[in-house]
Design brief:
The complex is a heterotrimer.
Chain A: H1 2-6, H2 9-27, H3 31-57, E1 60-65, E2 80-83, H4 85-109, H5 114-136, H6 140-158, H7 165-196, H8 201-210, H9 214-231, H10 238-246, H11 249-274, H12 282-302, H13 307-328, H14 331-362, H15 373-376, H16 378-392, H17 398-410, H18 415-441, H19 456-474, H20 476-492, H21 494-502, E3 505-507, H22 520-542, H23 547-555, H24 560-580
Antiparallel strand pairs in A: 1-2, 1-3
Helix pairs in contact in A: 2-3, 2-5, 3-4, 3-5, 4-5, 4-11, 4-14, 4-19, 4-20, 5-6, 5-11, 6-7, 6-11, 7-9, 7-10, 7-24, 8-21, 9-11, 9-24, 10-11, 10-13, 11-13, 11-14, 12-13, 12-18, 13-14, 13-18, 14-16, 14-17, 14-19, 14-20, 16-18, 16-19, 17-19, 18-22
Chain B: H1 2-24, H2 28-48, H3 52-78, H4 90-93, H5 99-122, H6 133-146, H7 151-159, H8 161-181, H9 193-204, H10 212-224, H11 253-275, H12 283-301, H13 303-307, H14 312-331, H15 333-337, H16 358-382
Helix pairs in contact in B: 1-2, 2-3, 3-12, 6-7, 7-8, 7-16, 8-14, 8-16, 11-12, 12-16, 14-16
Chain C: H1 3-22, H2 26-48, H3 67-72, H4 78-109
The chains are: A mainly alpha, B mainly alpha, C mainly alpha.
């Protein structure tokens, strides 16, 4: 039975691809039909994955050697697909949220021309297909290929509105930086193959355990740089804020909610599943990178005037948090990281959907121009407040659970990281509180000349996403035991996963973690950061920008050469740290 | 054996020299030619190192496709930008940051990357090492599993078909990306907020200098598209030493005759590459060769001759059909053989046209997709208009999307 | 000795990186990326080479050897050549996307200098 189900895995990738092929052709007929067909393709993909979910979340790894080319004597020439709990979680998130965003597209962008819509739907589905495939693949070269597919699809989507000069500027910077990242990963894959003659995860794991090389550490440094660019970690993050500012609403949501996770997935796979026997001090490196990202992202978010740019910097910060959690490497921290990854996908998508709604309805992007939207669009206000509260960690929303897990994992042995994360959390709360106030609750003197109505699709999207935020927050034990702990198990027990990908299947033990809802220390930390954040927000709204913040802002010069320099510097430092320590 | 190393080093020097020229030359067209030079050096290197299929692909890409792309893009920019080469005028030094500091930082960073890469490469096995087990499997398995004498094709379209599946849709993403970025303006119904945002943003960006330079640019663009009636068919009437640039649509009789001779050779060569699946080649280089043929005709004879072949709507459909065929060929493996991308076509004897089973079907579909896709890409780039930014003097672009009262 | 090839590939890669870092002309930056890509191909094919090997083709084996002997004999690595083959052709399309982006930026900003294309900053 397991063999028969596993063979469906490539179909979960093929479904959105078929939709992508049909999209430009259908776009000439009727734009809404194109989106409807695309949504159907993603729903089919989601259904196929859900079909396999019960087995996989039970701890089983479903392995499919594509084309029936099985490993021979421990060496695998063909491509292997493996559905483990972590990968399946990622893939399900991608397909489900992708479908919701397409629903949103019908109502928000349904008025676009036929050709444009066809192109949009095609690229959107290719991006989602690439995300699903990256999560399910167990082959380093295949991972690279799907990573590049996601990158290319994102270029066209970023620069979609050709009349906006900012969109084209952002698209160019994204192209240059992401392409460079792709080359780094390319060289890394070549080095791994040349050193060990292996492409399958399990085979690479075994080969690295047997014959570690210094070249592997260089490859890992390149991987951190390449996937770190995708994830938006400092100093590789130059493209992220620009791309999110200028892209269409649903696309920004897709980028921040799902595509940055691809970077996280790549790093997690390499650090825990593929290169675990020979990874040097990568965890220490990631702790520093993560800490910096958390602080810089939150600080920059506090200083932004453009709403979507603010949310984009918050994504940088959250990825930093995830990276710090990853760098601890304990079962509890990895569980917290996985939970936070899911939560971030949900609440960040919700926030971006709200921001996209505002831009599309009023044409305004700057917080300084907005105000008083609570009166005109109460539903958008509620959705935004729910999203902001989720990030802040207010119970009973989902942020409370994941942040609690992460903080608990950092207590004791990692005081520095805990302090950094708490500080970043306070800054994040401040940034979001300021945004909420300025956009929705501040009194605005002039009336808007034009506010469009919201479509039904948007309201459904709000409901689903906000509902999910509440559900994941109110039912932590259920989610932990059935979803998150098995998923984290793929990372904690990476050797089991790796072995399974070379064989015809296997089992992965879930990670050990518990969450105590009524933990007083957790409530104290959350309450403290909330209070501090709100005070800070109030202070920032009233006073001018502190000079430290201005200095950080000035470092983001906007020149593509400078951003590329930062990225290359990051790669060189990563490689040096890994090789020399 | 030393002959090998001599050839190898010569080709490497050629490649590195080309690369240095690309960085160094300030004139953009010159840099493009240097890039082409690098490509030719790489082709020779690939032949010397024993990779004939990759050399097939690289020669078309390096000599024809990439230079054409770059020159078309530079030409398009020239109509809107006054100085497109890298001006080093002293006034530029004062513009945002000191270039000298940036240069030293860049040298240090590049040196750092070089060191890291060399550290990695010295730790790798050298050429006396055994082939890895997976490669040996591919070599020994090609005949029994697929009845093909071309193991590289067996790997590309057979063993690692999933990889190539991904690469195909990588190409599709790029093609559709180019289509989206180069599209002409369409009518939109209703209010689209981004359009108002766009107007504000364009105001923040510096205003273009109005005046005769814009008109010149417009006229040049129109002539390029062949719409101006004054442009002669061929430059053969003009005397030798006529001032450049030529405004003719086609090239001189020498170029045209040469292309007339070369074209059938190229076409047959491309079709040979894809049809003889048991020899080096396959869909990817064949698609590139077909693109090369179309580009040669376009360059030598002008746009009119290729208009019949290069119709965007038809090509789009063709490309999507190619992609659909690929999905179909691979997905048929699931019900018929129990696994996606499994070989379900019965194997014919080796060294026949039908040998290889699924490999041939995949390869031919790939040819369709790659050839159509690359043609769309180049001609979309050529056909880019100016209707999304200001100075829309031709009246193109539909403004009906604006929702303002 | 193949290290010479690897060093040349690393050199071309770094020339590409240097171009992206210092050159302000947008088209030049794209050329830098093309150089990085080319370096990758040289690296792959150099890694595929084995001392005294022939191309991994079984068609028309030299006289005296059978196809089987050739398959078990000294050939270059077909797996790496597979990657390079598809990557070369796709590189054209990727460069085209980059160049389309450059042209559009030039149309809006009237400049090919990256210092002029900095509206999004801070």
């Amino acid at each position: 039975m397991s063999g028969a189900s596993a063979s469906l895995l490539p179909l979960a990738v093929a479904a959105p691809i078929c939709g992508a092929i049909a999209a430009p052709l259908l776009g000439r007929l009727w734009t809404r039909l194109t989106i409807a067909v695309s949504m159907l393709a993603l729903v089919v993909s989601c259904a196929l994955l859900a079909l396999l979910a019960p087995q996989v979340y039970d701890g089983e790894v479903l392995v499919e050697h594509v084309g029936n080319w099985h490993p021979v004597d421990g060496s695998q020439l063909g491509v292997t697909f493996a559905a483990d709990p972590f990968g399946l979680t990622f893939a399900l998130l991608a397909a489900a949220i992708g479908a919701i965003l397409l629903l949103l597209t019908i109502s928000e962008l349904g008025d676009l021309g036929g050709k444009e819509m066809g192109g949009y739907a095609c690229l959107f589905q290719l991006l989602v297909a690439a995300l699903v495939a990256s999560a399910l693949t167990a082959d380093v070269l295949d991972l690279f290929v799907w990573f590049e597919v996601a990158a290319l699809a994102s270029y066209g989507l970023t620069g979609f509105f050709l009349e906006r000069p900012l969109a084209l500027e952002a698209a160019f910077k994204t192209m240059v930086l992401t392409n460079m990242a792709a080359f780094f990963v390319f060289v890394a894959v070549a080095v791994v193959y040349a050193g060990h003659g292996a492409l399958n995860y399990g085979q690479v794991y075994a080969a690295m355990a047997e014959a570690p090389r210094t070249a592997d550490l260089v490859a890992l440094g390149l991987v951190v740089g390449g996937f770190g660019t995708k994830a938006g970690l400092v100093p590789f993050h130059g493209w992220l804020a620009d791309a999110h500012t200028a892209a269409p609403g649903p696309v920004s949501a897709l980028f921040s909610g799902l595509m940055v996770n691809l970077g996280l997935l790549g790093i997690a796979r390499f650090v825990f599943d593929v290169q675990a026997p020979n990874r040097g001090d990568v965890l220490g490196l990631l702790a520093v990178v993560g800490g910096f990202s958390a602080l810089v992202g939150a600080a920059m978010a506090l200083a932004q005037d453009d709403l979507k740019r603010l949310l984009a910097y918050d994504t940088v910060s959250q990825m930093g948090v995830l990276m710090v959690a990853l760098s601890v490497g304990s079962p509890e921290s990895l569980t917290g990281m996985t939970y936070h990854m899911v939560n971030h996908a949900l609440f960040k998508t919700l926030l971006f959907v709200c921001a996209g709604a505002i831009v599309h309805a009023t044409g305004m992007t700057r917080l300084s121009e907005m105000g008083g939207l609570a009166r005109h669009r109460p539903l958008v206000t509620v959705a935004f407040v729910v999203g902001a509260a989720a990030i802040a960690g207010v119970p009973p929303l989902n942020g409370y659970v994941s942040l609690g897990l992460i903080h608990h994992a950092l207590e004791g042995d990692h005081p520095v990281e805990l302090f950094v994360l708490t500080l970043a959390q306070a800054l994040t709360v401040a940034a979001l509180a300021r945004a909420t106030y300025l956009a929705f609750f501040r009194r605005r003197d002039d009336d808007y000349d034009r506010i469009e109505r919201l479509g039904a699709g948007m309201l459904v999207a709000f409901g689903l996403l906000a509902g999910a935020c509440v559900a994941f927050g109110a039912l932590p034990t259920l989610v932990l035991d059935h979803v998150v702990r098995p998923a984290a198990g793929s990372l904690v027990h990476g050797a089991e996963y790796a072995r399974a990908t070379l064989a015809d299947g296997g089992r992965v033990t879930p990670a050990e973690a518990t969450f105590d809802y009524a933990d007083p220390r957790q409530a104290l930390v959350i309450g403290g950061t909330l209070l501090l954040g709100l005070l800070l927000a109030r202070w920032v709204v009233r006073h001018s920008e502190p000079s430290l913040l201005t200095a950080v802002r000035r470092a983001h010069t906007g020149s593509v050469n400078d951003y590329a320099s930062y990225a290359v510097m990051g790669v060189v430092v990563s490689v040096a740290v890994l090789v020399l320590t | 054996m030393t002959w090998f190393w001599v050839l190898d080093v010569v080709c490497l020097l050629w490649v590195v020299a080309g690369a240095v020229l690309v960085v160094w030359l300030r004139n953009l067209s010159g840099a493009v030619m240097a890039l082409s030079l690098t490509g030719m050096g790489m082709t020779m290197l690939f032949v010397v190192l024993g990779a004939p299929d990759v050399a097939h692909a690289e020669v078309v890409v390096g000599a024809i496709a990439l230079p054409v792309l770059y020159l078309v893009a530079i030409g398009k920019c020239r109509t809107v930008v006054e100085r497109d080469d890298e001006s080093t005028g002293e006034d530029r030094e004062l513009h945002g940051g000191e270039p000298v500091r940036r240069r030293w930082a860049a040298v240090l960073l590049s040196a750092g990357v070089f060191t890291g890469l060399v550290v990695a490469f010295t730790g790798l096995p050298d050429e006396t090492e055994e082939l890895p087990a997976v490669a040996r499997r591919a070599m020994t398995g090609a005949l029994p599993d697929f009845h093909t004498t071309e193991p590289v094709s067996a790997v590309v379209y057979g063993y690692r078909a999933m990889d190539t599946f991904g690469e195909t849709f990588l190409l599709l993403a790029a093609v559709v990306g180019v289509m989206v970025l180069t599209r002409t303006r369409e009518a939109r119904q209703g209010f689209v907020g981004e359009e108002r945002a766009a107007d504000e943003e364009q105001e923040d960006v510096d205003h273009p200098p109005r005046g005769s330079s814009s008109d010149e640019a417009r006229r040049a663009e129109r002539v390029e598209e062949g719409r101006a009636p004054e442009a002669p068919e061929t430059p053969d009437r003009e005397g030798l030493g006529a001032p450049a640039p030529e405004t003719a649509q086609a090239m001189s009789v020498v170029a045209r005759t040469a292309v007339r001779v070369a074209l059938p050779l190229l076409l047959v060569g491309g079709l040979y590459l894809v049809s003889q699946g048991y020899s080096p080649g396959g869909g990817f280089p064949a698609g590139a060769v077909l693109l090369g043929a179309v580009l040669l005709v376009h360059t030598a004879f002008g746009y009119d001759r290729v208009r019949a072949v290069v119709r965007p709507r038809v090509l789009e459909v063709v490309e999507m059909l190619g992609a659909a065929a690929i999905v179909g060929v691979l997905a048929a493996g699931l019900p018929l053989e129990g696994s996606f991308a499994a070989n379900w076509i019965p194997l014919a004897p080796e060294q026949t046209l039908r040998s290889g089973g699924m490999l041939q079907a995949f390869s031919v579909s790939e040819l369709v997709e790659v050839g159509a896709g690359l043609t769309i890409v180049v001609f979309s780039l050529l056909g880019m208009r100016h209707d999304w930014a200001e100075d829309d003097e031709d009246g193109e672009g539909d403004e009906s999307g604006e929702g303002d009262a | 000795m193949i290290l010479v090839n690897y060093a040349a590939a690393a050199l071309v890669f770094c020339l590409g990186v240097y171009t992206v870092l210092t050159r302000r002309n947008l088209v030049k930056i794209v050329m830098g990326l093309s150089l990085m890509e080319s370096a990758g191909y040289v690296l792959l094919i150099s890694m595929a080479y084995r001392k005294g090997s022939t191309a991994p083709v079984l068609l028309h084996p030299p006289s005296g050897t059978t196809e089987q002997e050739l398959a078990h004999g000294n050939v270059a690595d077909p797996v790496l050549q597979n990657i390079a083959l598809t990557a070369v052709v796709i590189g054209v399309a990727v460069t085209a996307v980059l160049l389309a982006g450059v042209v559009r930026v030039a149309q809006h900003y009237r400049s090919l200098d990256s210092d002029d294309v900095r509206e999004l900053r801070g």
